[in-house]
Structures are given as C-alpha cells and as structure tokens.
Please model this.
Amino acid sequence: EAGVTQSPTHLIKTRGQQATLRCSPISGHTSVYWYQQALGLGLQFLLWYDEGEERNRGNFPPRFSGRQFPNYSSELNVNALELEDSALYLCASSQVRVTGANVLTFGAGSRLTVL
Amino acid sequence: DQQVKQNSPSLSVQEGRISILNCDYTNSMFDYFLWYKKYPAEGPTFLISISSIKDKNEDGRFTVFLNKSAKHLSLHIVPSQPGDSAVYFCAAIGSNDYKLSFGAGTTVTVRA
Model:
C-alpha cells in the first residue's frame, strides 16, 4: 500500500512569490491534514480537508489556502511568501476525521525555503 | 497557545540504558495521547498511544505512562538502541476535537 506522498521535496522561492505544495493521501483515506513545522517549533496545524471541503483551519493568515480534489488529493497554496514561511510542510491523511484510535499517517514533507 | 509542551529539546543516552521523554499538557479535554517518531527526511510515524482511562500502555520496548492529575505523560524506551535516535513528538486530542495538537519534539541521541 502506497503511503502519503508529497511533492516537491524541496522548493525555493523568493519573498512575495507563491508556492504550491501537493499531497496524495493513502488510498481510502478521505481526510487530509496540513501541518507546518518551523525550525524549533512543533507541528502547527494549518488546514483540514475532508470529502472535498475545508473543515477547519489553524491560526494562520488567509495567505495560506488550499483545496482537496475529487480523488482526495490536496494542494496547499501559500501566497505573498514571507521569510518566516520557510518551514517543513507535512501532509497527513486519515480515514475520516482523526481520533485517538484513528491515527494520522504522514508524508515525508515538502521543505519550503523563502529567500 | 501551546497546549502540549515538551520542555526538553534533546536527550542523550547510552545504548542499553533507559530513555525517558516527558510531555505536559494544559487542556483537560484531551483524552487520548500519542507519540510519534521522526527520522530526518521522513515524516513522523505513529509509535504508541494511551487513552485517558489508562495510566500505562506498553508495546515492546516502549511504555507510555499517563498522570492525569499532573497533566503529564512520559515515554520510556528500554533498552535504548542506536536506531531509536530520532525526534519524538508528543501529541494529544480530545473526543470532540478534529486535530492532533503536537509538542515541539525531543531529539533523542543514543550513544554506542
């Protein structure tokens, strides 16, 4: 069974540009979560998509947005990039909403560097 | 507001000895706690979890202890092996929650 796949692995952008990150969940998983891991910080919740809809978002500005496609894959868009957006962006999937028993499976992440 | 805290950013332990990782939380609505392990260039992988109705859960070399009154949990790795060198994240979720809340992680280095 293929795991959660993310692309690109690395991405370098300059301030003000836009970045698009992509994620394919595990087959059969309908929920996709995006987390940001900035240097020295834990995983900060960004967005949750389920059945094609944005279900909830974390405490991030509207520059961070995304969508989920009919095949449950997802993309994360970051507009007007700022230096502090440099981080590892992790995508995770689960069967429906994550619970204590229904754990998240993570991809390897996309490393975004903003110069 | 960081609801899950791992106050030790790093831990170094000799091979064969016990590794003890600590985690504190502030949200009393959390009722499930998880540990994830992350190697460089890989995503976090689920390691072990515990429900709030228990105070201990064991899986091979890994044991998680939960002290609800202190809002504290710990992960014990016995014996520690070089392959255990990784970043360990503590996470928590409530029954009405929709997301996992993570701590900042503890980097464990197992010395040969």
User: Anything to note?
Assistant: Chain A has a mean pLDDT of 93. The interface with chain B takes residues 4, 33, 35, 40-45, 48, 55-56, 58, 90, 92, 97-101, 103-109 of chain A (CB under 8 Å). The radius of gyration of chain A is 13 Å. Chain A has one domain: 5-114.
